[in-house]
From TrEMBL:
Transmembrane segments: none annotated. This is ROK family protein. SUPFAM superfamilies: Actin-like ATPase domain. It comes from Streptomyces albipurpureus. Pfam families: ROK.
């Protein structure tokens, strides 16, 4: 029997991906374009439109009943606008209205990319079966989302759970968001690499100075590289523990490129969490890697759209 599909968009500073996703989370058609992030607003939007137009060529398009958008943020779901930090020309850009011009009468659900990843992990990944969870993307930035009481909790603007901008160092560096000592300023990939370089770590002969290269050096026993990951782990642990204390989550799922460091990140993270999550009701909190991988944004955008139309049991938690 034919089933309804959701048109999913995953919009970030590097790529714009789209897919037709079915009720089991399968990507039946997938399209991707590079994000012209440094170009003007209309050029970026044309890339989004190109993805949608290519999806619309599929004979499956007619089965689409909703559109889900997961976008780099901040987003404002109540206004239908986005202001991605890594797409400078999009400030309060009316993304929902512009997508509606292509997709017609289909209902549209907009969430931040961290919330989309959370929807994917709760539906298909490591948070499945958990009623209260924090899911995080640790990459060039740090984002996240919440599941509370078994339901995705995007908040009024679609940004709830944005753990990257919890302050964990009151006298820390100034963050581009305007606050000081944010988790993102310590634990994101670029900041892990920056701190290692400032402390004297040097790339190998290939010149790779990314967080992945720092992780490889740490794995090989480099103490400076290791220290940078330990500091990142402490920041993440403090943010996770604060979130758990506030809303009583029982699992924190960590995905994104930095999570690819594996034990280099997760061993000190779990150790640090024991120092921060000290109250009895958060002591059983667990931290685990994400499972949904590179398509988490698309799967989660589809899940969020399903939530918006039919309630949590219809897609997430099914």
């Amino acid at each position: 029997m034919l089933t309804d599909l959701v048109v999913a968009l995953d919009i970030g500073g590097t790529k714009i991906a789209g897919a037709l996703v079915d009720g089991k989370g399968r990507l039946l058609v997938r399209v991707q374009r590079p994000t012209p992030a440094q170009e003007d607003a209309e050029t970026v939007m044309r890339a989004v439109e190109a993805v949608l137009h290519e999806l619309a060529l599929s004979p499956l398009w007619g089965r689409s009943t909703a559109v889900g958008i997961g976008s780099a943020g901040p987003v404002d779901a109540s206004a239908g606008t986005v202001s991605p930090v890594n797409v400078p020309s999009w400030r309060d850009f009316p993304l929902v209205a512009r997508v509606c011009q292509v997709t017609g009468a289909l209902p549209i659900q907009l969430v931040g990319d961290g919330v989309a990843m959370t929807a994917a992990e709760h539906w298909q990944g490591a948070a499945r079966g958990h009623a209260n969870a924090l899911c995080m993307v640790v990459s060039t930035g740090v984002g996240g989302g919440l599941v509370l009481g078994g339901r995705l909790h995007p908040g009024p603007t679609g940004n709830a759970g944005h753990i990257g901008h919890i302050s964990v160092d009151l006298d820390g560096d100034l963050c581009p968001c305007g606050a000081r000592g944010c988790v993102e300023g310590i634990a994101s990939g670029p900041n892990i690499a920056r701190r290692a370089l400032e402390a004297g770590w040097r790339p190998g002969s290939d010149g790779d100075s990314s967080a992945a290269a720092v992780a490889a050096a740490a794995r090989a026993g480099d103490t400076v590289a290791t220290a940078s990951f330990v500091r990142a782990a402490q920041a993440l642990a403090a943010g996770i523990a604060a979130t758990a204390t506030l809303v009583e989550i029982d699992i924190a799922v960590v995905g994104g490129g930095v999570a690819g460091a594996g034990d280099v990140l997760f061993t000190p993270l779990r150790f640090a969490l024991r120092k921060y999550a000290t109250l009895r009701f958060v002591q059983q909190l667990t931290v685990t890697p994400a499972l949904t991988g590179a398509n988490a944004g698309l799967v989660g955008a589809a899940a969020a759209a399903g939530l918006g139309r039919r309630g949590a049991a219809a897609i997430v938690g099914a």
